[in-house]
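Lab notebook page, bench 4
Experiment: in silico fold of construct C2
Operator: M.H.
Input chain length: 547 residues
Purpose: comparison with the prior construct
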Amino acid sequence: MSDLREAGMKSKAWPFEEARKLIKRYAKAPPEKGYVLFETGYGPSGLPHIGTFGEVARTTMVMRAFEVLSDIPTKLICFSDDLDGMRKVPGNVPNPEELEPYLQMPLTRVPDPFGTHESFGHHNNAMLRRFLDTFGFSYEFISGKTYYESGAFDSVLLRAAERYDDVMAVMLKSLREERRETYSIFLPMHPETGRVLYVPMKHVDAAKGTVTFDDQDGREWTVPVTGGNVKLQWKPDFGARWASLGVDFEMYGKDHSTNTPIYDRICEILGGKKPEHFTYELFLDDKGQKISKTSGNGISIDEWLTYATETSLSYFMYQKPKTAKRMFFDVIPRAVDEYHQQLRAYAGQTIEQQVNNPVYHIHAGDVPVSTMVVPFGMLLNLASVSGAEDKATMWKFIGQYAPDASPEGNPDLDEAAGFAVRYFHDFVKPTRKFRTPTEAEAAALVELAEAFADETKALDQIARKMAAMEQDDALPMADFADAEFLQTVALSVGKNHGYGNLREWFKVLYEVLLGVEQGPRIGSFAKLYGVENTIALISEGAAGKLT
């Protein structure tokens, strides 16, 4: 066994924990189909949202972990339930009122409100595939419409007709009494209107493979269960799909968790083996509401990529999948900086530590080197005080902080500088609230500006702080080009002005100078922005000129 495989077998990283379940599943013999099948499902009732990407990204992480532990081939299927009827019109499409006449029509027969594809379902499928392709996922896409109409699903549909009573018994236990009276696992397509009908079955003929029902006008129809004439209700569809495809692993949101026994039992009734599953917590918007593709709340895939890289998004998806997380624009800067912190740590870690590092799973073991020598959060503050309109302006300051850095040699940093300008103008600038300092705060700011401007005063501030703390250490060498020296000066001024809790002192600096409640290390920021520029900023803040 290789060192990597041995480390993966012991790893506590959740993708390896899930992969080991699949190892046990096929401990006696490999699957007859020749590969382990991972599936992720998608309901194209609205535009693909970021949670959809998260499901595919996380499933891929488990699949890659399994490939480290086993030589059995793998396959990932992305299944779109695009034969589903449109239950309500999404609010985030052009001219939504024009879609009202198409309620209960299969999504692949609803006109595309964007005017670019054959149908709304085709449009949303294309959006999903475009994004998955952008991220380089290796997957096979299956359209529900194609799967039903091509006959690929026919054998399981005929088995569902044959074992109709058994499957219905599973479903009826989970339904309210009034729902039981009209429920059927089969949803026929109206032979004339094409609408998906939610009607009870009058007769299911297992021998002929047909169902008989009355439409909403009381007319009786008999249609085959094969060839796309019916589809399964979504819960039976889950289990039937597992049985038909031979799915070995699927993850889904917590809102499905109570249905897992239903999916499993239906899969078994229809001749399949229930897969391994992983339930993740849901994403919430800034108000704590579940992100929904029909309401369009939260962050879209494209919106995240407007302000940060896809790798930072993958990092966010990796973290604590069983914990509910708020997902809105404020989480982006932290995700970017934490991702690069993990990149920097990776090279110096043992193989046991590396397989527990998120970036190992994000990059499937082929982990790049970070060239991000300035944190994203600090770039945001730089964009704020410099009024930067483009990354070229940002680089004038970055060059002072990191003389050896360049757009060519530090592509991560170059890309982040552009993102920071965009993010600042769209989110930070509109919400900044500068305040006028109190008289005592203004006095402290004046002394900070003087200490940053004069070597003697800087060292005096440090000496006073050391004396107050009864420290006899030698004074540091004065070096205004050194971020740590500038940070020490700032700490000393705060201490000398009675700030026992230095967080309160730095909060004053952030609120008065940057218009925010949280910010960067002042020493590092002063070096990045330039000491002279920082002195001018502090002086203006002390005089109340920034409000």
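Observations: The first helix runs from residue 3 to 10. Residues 439-542 form a domain with the Arc Repressor Mutant, subunit A fold (CATH 1.10.10).
Next step: discuss at group meeting.
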